[in-house]
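hi! just following up on the protien thing from before. the input was this:
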Amino acid sequence: MWTFLGRPECVLCLSSALCAMALFSNSQLPRLNQTHLNPLLLITRKVGLKVEDSQFTLEGFPFRIISGTIDYFRIPRQSWRLSLRKMQACGFNTLTTHIPWNLHEPKVGQFRFTEDIDLIAFITMASESGLWVILCPGPYIGSDLDLGGLPSWLLKDPKMKLRTTYKGFTKAMNRYFNNLIPKIARFQYKRGGPIIAVQVENEYGSYYMDKKYMEYVKTALVSRGIDELLMTADDGANLRKGHLQNVLATVHMKNIKKETYEDLRSIQGRRPILMMVYTANSFDTWGTLRQVGDPQMLMKDVREMFILGFSLNFYMFQGGTNLGLIGGAQSSEGYTPVVTSYDYSALVTEGGEYTVEYHEFQRFFHSVTDINFSIQPKATLMFAYQPVTLLYFMTLWEVLPYLVKITKSSKPLSMEQLRVNEGNGQSFGYILYETLIFHGGLLTSRGHIQDRGQVFLDNDYVGLLDQSNYELLLFKDVAKKTQVLRILVENQGRLTSGKGINKERKGLTGDIYLDKSPLRPFKIYSLEMGNIFIQREFPKSWKTVTSQVQGPAFFLGYLKAGDPPQGTFIQIKGWGKGVISINGRSLGRYWNVGPQETIYVPGSWLHPGVNKIIMFEELKGDVRIRFANKARLGY
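and the predicted 3d structure came back as:
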């Protein structure tokens, strides 16, 4: 009887091979000779990653997958190679990475595979760093992203059924795969590349809206040239629903029980077990306590997995940052949006620093494998710059006249319905609704505000409507014939999973009422707060900050950096809630409800000399911007 993942379970009944492995004590862990399996050194390319009874083989040799997840879209491109070298130096032999459809096809039929989402460059760097690659192309990837990585423009279709064989979804998916798969197929193992396996979708067993869907996705991959080992991945409770015949079923650590391994055995016999998501922790959400793992239990689990012959993927090796506003939300305990940091208690921090756990894993992997380890890169150091004390500001109301595109509509339109971005709607950020009222009364949203709406009368803040507060009493100024009612609604992140994703439209998703009468008509302003929005030419009427300024407002400051610039963290102490950008690139969301107290600023995004910081503050701004050399992510 072994204790696995903190629970005593008789996992030894899985197979005689695992029983034999379990006879080793912790000091007798089997040593793996895999020096000949470096992707840069291996010349023969014939059979690839295969399942041979209870073990994996690569080119016919026994192979233990020791993988870690790094998602390239959460790490600045200039840091990719260094992060991959840190992974290989720690003892990992494989990289797992997810491919976000929403970032690669932000507009229908317009694809981006360059700059910070240059997938092919990332795969190439992994190979050059001595790592094999497991790709997760989705189309749904989860990964705690907005809508699980699916494009929000899919929801323009009011009948959309995401992750099914609904024609509206499969047509879009096929177009995406037509552009994506040829790019990655040529980097498969048997064609001389590092890709040894491809995951089909992700955790479909917990969704399971269409019995034909997973087979459809598999066919879409294979027909376009994917011919390496395919795998599915589900949590312990949903293995049976999510698996495909003749496709390796892997398991995520959630809901692991003795029955999980019995299910695996009954599904696919004595095949090797790959713990596709083993994690020390979970993501953090705004307004809750920080998730903190147990490092001792972590290493104990990994030792036991090695004893039992498991392969594993550590999620996350380096979590990075939800740069921009790409983080999603969960709804298991009410609606809770994901914070900007995706640190995830990873082995390498979002800023690239080593953790104690990194060194623990490194010692362990060095003790049980014969992998040729590269020289460990030097630790990444951060810098606490002097505070920026000279700030300028401009209220949102002063900026509105300079916004080029204003949508006029008799009824409220959701973000996805807006005729912006060449008809693709709005994905992230804020949306402002403006209408005239002629009397006061009870303002009622009837649950149509997604997710958080601040209400203003003639620029004065009145109150908040959100997913739990549907009513607000308005007192009209009797001296005025009409007043301007404005509702500033923020998309705090679409759900990342669950059947509710089909309804995840943002902004005002239906009528809003004043004394039971629907308000009409509206001017609608799109405030995406992405790089293109921040890089726009703002009016020249900035004013100097002399005291705390009531939001919503934009703030401007200039940071002086040395040569070369060093990364840093912006402290949000003194600020309320909003979005930060540096040199026209969005760093993400901040909020004083915690747990996150600092926002990561990559050194590669800074220039020697003057750097331009723009903050959009919803509530109340400070008179300075402070910096730190350590992340403060809460307790």
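The mean pLDDT is 91.
The CA atoms of residues 104 and 609 lie 33 Å apart.
cheers
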